[in-house]
Amino acid sequence: xxxxxxxxxxxxxxxxxxxxxxxxxxxxxxxxxxxxxxxxxxxxxxxxxxxxxxxxxxxxxxxxxxxxxxxxxxxxxxxxxxxxxxxxxxxxxxxxxxxxxxxxxxxxxxxxxxxxxxxxxxxxxxxxxxxxxxxxxxxxxxxxxxxxxxxxxxxxxxxxxxxxxxxxxxxxxxxxxxxxxxxxxxxxxxxxxxxxxxxxxxxxxxxxxxxxxxxxxxxxxxxxxxxxxxxxxxxxxxxxxxxxxxxxxxxxxxxxxxxxxxxxxxxxxxxxxxxxxxxxxxxxxxxxxxxxxxxxxxxxxxxxxxxxxxxxxxxxxxxxxxxxxxxxxxxxxxxxxxxxxxxxxxxxxxxxxxxxxxxxxxxxxxxxx
Length: 369
Hints:
Number of strands: 16
Distance between the termini: 39 Å
Mean pLDDT: 86
Helix content: 25-40%
Order of helices and strands: EHEEEEEEEHEHEEHEHEHEHHHHEE
Strand content: 15-25%
C-alpha cells in the first residue's frame, strides 16, 4: 500500500507488480515444479488486466507432493513498502478437488468483519485468490490427476511481512500479523491513488461493520495524533486517514451509513475544500485567494486583509493574519464554507475540525454556526 503523496508528473515512471501477482507467479512455479519434478526459474502470467508478465523465480524446491517457490517483488518506481520483499508460496497437492488458502508467515489474518473475507481467513484478497485458483486448477487438470480429483492447499508467505505491516494501515483494518496479498490488475502504477483510495473505502467499511458510532477522519498522522487525545476511548478502526481524498472519504461515509463523522483538516486543505476541491493535492489545484478574501470580509476583517492575503505564498500562512483560535470569526466562516461543500456529499452528523501545527484545534460542530 502506498502511503505517500504523488508528485504531479509520473507519466514516465516504471510500473511494477502487486503482491497478488507475485503470489500467483510463485503458486504457478510451485505446481509446475512438483508436477514436472524440476526446478522452475521463470514463469509467465496473464494478469487480470489482460497484460502478460514474466517473473523471475528466485528459489524453488520440490518433494513428492509439495513445492515451494519465491520471487522478489518489484513495485517499479512506486514507494510501496513491499518493494524488494520476498513473496513465496508453498503448494501441497491433495485429492480433495478443492483449492484452499492457508496463512503463511508474514501474511495477515482477518480479525474484524467488514472486509470481503471472513474473520479468521488469511488476508489474501479475492482477485489474487481467483488468479491462483485458476492457474493451479488448470495445471492440475492438464496433468490428468491419475484418475483422481486433484486439489491443492496454497500457503502464501512473506518472511518480512509482519515487520512491513507496521508501515501500513493494516492493524486498524483488523488485519493482524502481516501484510495483505492484494491487487486487482496485478500491476502497481507509480504513485497510484487507487491503492490509497481503496484503503479509505476499506477503513470506512470496517468502522461501519463493527458498529463504530463515530468516525474521526484526518489528512495524516500529525492531526490524527491530536485527535486521538480528544477521543481516547475510540477504537483504532474509528480513526481514518484520507490523505488528499476528502471526497472519496465523504462518499464512502455516506454509502456505508456512518452516523457521526468528525472531519479534521489543516488550514491549507480547508482553504481548498472551501473552494470545492475534494482532491486537495498541491499539484492538482491552487488555493483561491479571492474566495478567502471574501470569507475574510464576511468575518469582519479590516480592509487590509485582502491585500495581505494576496501577498501570501501558502495558505498555511493565513495564521500570520488570523491567529488560530476557537473564537476567531475568520475560521468560523471558513469552516462554515467547508461544511457547505461537505454537505454536497455527506448527510450524516458532521463536526469539522481545523488543526494547527502546534496541536490546537478549532471545532465547528453545529449546523447553524
